[in-house]
Amino acid sequence: MTATAPLTTSTRPSAVRLGLRANLAQFALLVAVNALVGGMLGQERTVLPLLADRTFHLSAYTAALTYIVAFGATKAVTNFFAGALSDQYGRKPVLVAGWLLALPVPLLLIWAPTWGWVVFANVLLGVNQGLTWSTTVIMKIDLVGPARRGLAMGFNEAAGYLAVAATAMGTGAIAAHWGLRPQPFLLGIAYAALGLGLSVLAVRETREHARAEAALHPAPANPGHHGALTTGQVARTTSLTDRALSSASWAGMVNNLNDALAWGVFPLLFAAHGLSVARIGLLAALYPAVWGLGQILTGWWSDRIGRKHLITAGMLVQAVAIGLVAAGTTFPVWALAQVLLGAGTALVYPTLLAVIGDVAHPAWRARAVGVYRLWRDGGFAVGALLAGALADAYGVTTAIWTVAALTAVAGVVVAVRMYETRPRRAEPDGV
Length: 431
Prior knowledge:
CATH architecture: Up-down Bundle
Largest sheet: none
CATH class: Mainly Alpha
CATH superfamily: MFS general substrate transporter like domains
Organism: Kitasatospora putterlickiae
Helix content: over 70%
Distance between the termini: 35 Å
Membrane topology: Multi-pass membrane protein
Order of helices and strands: HHHHHHHHHHHHHHHHHH
Transmembrane segments: 20-41, 61-82, 94-111, 117-138, 159-179, 185-203, 284-302, 309-327, 333-356, 377-394, 400-419
Keywords: Cell membrane, Membrane, Transmembrane, Transmembrane helix, Transport
Subcellular location: Cell membrane
Oligomer: single chain
Number of domains: 1
């Protein structure tokens, strides 16, 4: 990589147009790339919890969930650096680097002789997801400008999580027919190769779009924020001092804490009640499918009615859904719970990213996205450790109820502390 000038508000590139219509081809390509990013995660959602139980015979929940801890911790840290690196070197080099690191992941999962190999594969997967998903988020925000941030994030997250759902269902069906390894992970090999090829050959750099927006809007979104913040100041503002940014960071962390529960604990709970691998795969797919489809609507909706109330409602719906999983014992009840969990997450996920885009000035927005995603994806590690420890000590039902309570608390925090961030008069983008 060759370092280039960092993003500043003083640079105003010519011949750069903001807006969804003006950048539709690249936007659509980035949607497709993020679907492949989601597919890399989806290859694990059904199969890995069952591998831990049936192939590696890990009886303790804490031990079985170490791969989620490894994934979440590395993804969270990588998210932070992805924003700063994309400002310094450009978005495309960071995206390509993320795909290069994805190539060995499915091979390690196929050949892993011990659980340590699986954990190492998830370290690489966490770095891959942090670099690629963060960068596609930043690039879409760059392209569309201020008027369609919610819609852009809806499409981005919908593509990623619909791919998670489709791949989780596909790998579940493959595993039910051919076994847990190696066939389910052949999808991951194809995703990594295609994602790398598209990123190298077809994706174009978008940092100039952020510079153009910064030049057109030198005043920061929040009057208390100036455009020339250091990375440390960005981290402090996003994590602590700004009520909207910090509330979004907390809600994002709790959201992915309960996603870690859904990923690592729910399949084991369903298996303990005698569900088949195919039915577990269906439940594992139902939640991200509703989540993914719903985000197309909720991202657009947040552009119309605002962010705060959708986030509050989404966290509370998630809490109800998680409690329903704890209370349920049958496939229909769990299917309803997965639908509700997906709906609640759809209300929250793109809207939180839109909050970051609303408040953060273009000059430091990529770094703010990185800090937010540091907190949000740190929830994977926190959730896996908390759920595993509680499940081992008090039983899996207690662990699930605890996460439901934390999710409800997060909704209350947003309701009390966050201010509304949707721009009052969003500028037209030609759509």
